[in-house]
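Q: What would this chain look like folded?
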Amino acid sequence: MSKIRAFNAVVYVLVVVPFAILFMYMFGRYNRVIRRFVAKIFLKIFCVKYEEIGSIDKEAQILVMNHQSFMDVIVLEAICPLNLCWIAKKELGEAFLYGHALKAPKMILINRESKREIIRLLKEAEDRLHNNRVLCIFPEGTRSKGGEKLLPFKQGAKVLIDNFKLKVQPIVFCGTRANLDVGAFKFDNSNFTIKYLESFIPSGDDWYNELKELMQDEYTKIYTKSDICMGE
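A: My prediction, written as structure tokens:
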């Protein structure tokens, strides 16, 4: 059943997403509406089940999240009322279909291996913030396997937040890897949890490490209390 569901999800993407990309290129000012509609229909068709704890801060300027699965992106695109701008690695922009799904709505694509890219990141981030978009970043830099520990945080998010003095809202995902694992072609559609932590404007020299510890603590609480996060 998991494989069949995964196959159907691929069919949905191949049929619906090209039209969404076309419409986003044609009607750029409505790209957020288009993205949200496509994501909400996906959740509805596949009866995706999740628990939300807390709520989105509509005044947040950047959402900092751990990353387990592509479901993290789908569900946030569907339920978040803000105009999101994802910061992703450049290689994703080169992928067939998905690359244009990132380029059409002007997401930020960077080469994480180049130190020079931080200048372009800051420039593009300033443009998106000026256009009232909310930045979204996975400081781990890649998907984890959904185990007990978050991956180490890379420094790009800290530089970005410190430079613009952004209001940060941390979000913790638990169980999305067990729900949807694209690499393994598995779509078990199990329950998962999204926890919105309190927003803050960073201060002090060690705030980034404190943020990592906070997100790890909150993740551990969810992970140990529920079996929905246990899928590896």
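The CA atoms of residues 67 and 111 lie 18 Å apart.
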